[in-house]
């Protein structure tokens, strides 16, 4: 019984973290150009996850989101996303969630 309660609490916490990351990405405007499983203006989250699978790139991708740029997935540039648009904790959670897609 105790194990079931712990497992339930962990599942609820994980679901809450996913919802927080989704909300932060929506608020920051990420979903205007990216989707989970299809290319919009930018690559899908699945394509991003596939490209960086098995690599420790959270910090690198956070920098890339902060600075913006182009060339990784095509010629269309991504605008910079400063901390006033998405804070560091939410950005880290979003990048981690994208890499698990």
Automatic annotation (TrEMBL):
<keyword id="KW-0813">Transport</keyword>
<dbReference type="GO" id="GO:0009055">
    <property type="term" value="F:electron transfer activity"/>
</dbReference>
<dbReference type="GO" id="GO:0020037">
    <property type="term" value="F:heme binding"/>
</dbReference>
<keyword id="KW-0732">Signal</keyword>
<dbReference type="InterPro" id="IPR009056">
    <property type="entry name" value="Cyt_c-like_dom"/>
</dbReference>
<dbReference type="Pfam" id="PF00034">
    <property type="entry name" value="Cytochrom_C"/>
</dbReference>
<keyword id="KW-0349">Heme</keyword>
<dbReference type="GO" id="GO:0005506">
    <property type="term" value="F:iron ion binding"/>
</dbReference>
<keyword id="KW-0408">Iron</keyword>
<feature type="binding site" description="covalent">
    <location>
        <position position="34"/>
    </location>
    <ligand>
        <name>heme c</name>
    </ligand>
</feature>
<dbReference type="InterPro" id="IPR002324">
    <property type="entry name" value="Cyt_c_ID"/>
</dbReference>
<feature type="signal peptide">
    <location>
        <begin position="1"/>
        <end position="19"/>
    </location>
</feature>
<keyword id="KW-0249">Electron transport</keyword>
<feature type="binding site" description="covalent">
    <location>
        <position position="78"/>
    </location>
    <ligand>
        <name>heme c</name>
    </ligand>
</feature>
<feature type="binding site" description="covalent">
    <location>
        <position position="30"/>
    </location>
    <ligand>
        <name>heme c</name>
    </ligand>
</feature>
<dbReference type="InterPro" id="IPR036909">
    <property type="entry name" value="Cyt_c-like_dom_sf"/>
</dbReference>
<feature type="domain" description="Cytochrome c">
    <location>
        <begin position="11"/>
        <end position="101"/>
    </location>
</feature>
<keyword id="KW-0479">Metal-binding</keyword>
<protein>
    <submittedName>
        <fullName>Cytochrome C</fullName>
    </submittedName>
</protein>
């Amino acid at each position: 019984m105790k194990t079931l309660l712990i497992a339930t609490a962990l599942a609820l916490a994980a679901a809450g973290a996913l919802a927080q990351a989704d909300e932060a990405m929506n608020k920051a405007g990420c979903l205007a150009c990216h989707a989970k499983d299809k290319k919009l203006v930018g690559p899908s989250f699945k394509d991003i996850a596939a490209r960086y699978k098995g690599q420790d790139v959270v910090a690198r991708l956070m920098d890339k989101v902060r600075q913006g740029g182009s060339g990784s997935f095509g010629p269309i540039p991504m605008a910079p996303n400063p901390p006033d648009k998405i804070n560091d904790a939410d950005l880290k959670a979003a990048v981690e969630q994208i890499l698990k897609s």
